[in-house]
Amino acid sequence: MTSRVARALVIHELLERVRDRWVMVITGLFVLLASGIGMYGRAAEESAAAVAAPSLVTLAAFLVPLVALVLGHDAIVGERERHTLGLLMSLPVGRGEVLLAKFLGRAMALAIAIVLGMGSAALLVEAGQRAVLLSLIGPTMLLGGAFLSIGMLVSTVAKRHATAASLAVSVWFLLVFFYDLGLLGLLVATDGAVSQDVIAGLVQINPAGLYRTGLLVQLSGATALEEMGLAVALPSTAVKAALWSAWLAGPLVIGGLLLGRRRAVTA
């Protein structure tokens, strides 16, 4: 993002997204629910962080991917339907810079939503417990960024806005809801023949699963999975960094290649 035009695109995307009514509604819902979790944690007899943090992780694992997909699903197809994609591509920036600018602007809007949600919960617990809740912000931004990148790819593939919206919702249900159910069904269908290491690996390649298991260990310790009956080795920090990098950059790279191919075909 070295050119002035690219920086202007980032700012434009940010301002447009923060005014999006659907984003505002989902963000408001996230803040409201997170605040409720913070109030419940403060009222609990146990440590507020011990009560509120796992609930916040569960809430974020469901809502943040939805917010991210809503933010990303119309990035390209919306420009195409408004017949402004050609004008956008005629600017003195490459298609990769256009995609990256759209991603960064929308990622900033997503970061605002995450900080508002997690911050509202942290403000409602005792001062000594806030650091634990605030430590969830970074991993949650990674989760949101991964799904935003997927949403951008959906927007590049789809030819119509309605199709992109349907695909985004389908991706949300698939990765957030049905993926774990599918793994459970695999265990049942094979009568436990699939090893725990294979199941753990399949969980880790899903960004939602990578987020949940990583924070489970962060909040409850390295023995948390063993207490649940899962005696598996979690991926190293380097492997987790590689997985997050792949989810953040991979869909954008594929989207850029597809966008360039479409431009070449229509030229």
Task: Characterise the protein shown here.
- This protein has 13 helices and no strands.
- It is mostly helical and 267 residues long.
- It has a domain at 4-172 and 251-266.
- Helix 1 (4-18) crosses helix 6 (95-123), helix 3 runs parallel beside helix 8 and helix 3 (48-72) packs antiparallel against helix 11.
- The radius of gyration is 20 Å and the shape is globular.
- The model has no long low-confidence stretch (mean pLDDT 84).
- The pLDDT mean sits at 84
- Give the H and E element order: HHHHHHHHHHHHH
Structural class: mainly alpha
Report helical residue fraction: over 70%
The biggest beta sheet reads: none
Strand content: under 5%
Helix segment count? 13
Calculate Rg over CA atoms. 20 Å
Between the first and last Cα atoms, what is the distance in angstroms? 26 Å
Query: Which runs of at least 5 residues are low in confidence (pLDDT < 50)?
Result: none
DSSP summary, beta strand count? 0
Molecular shape = globular
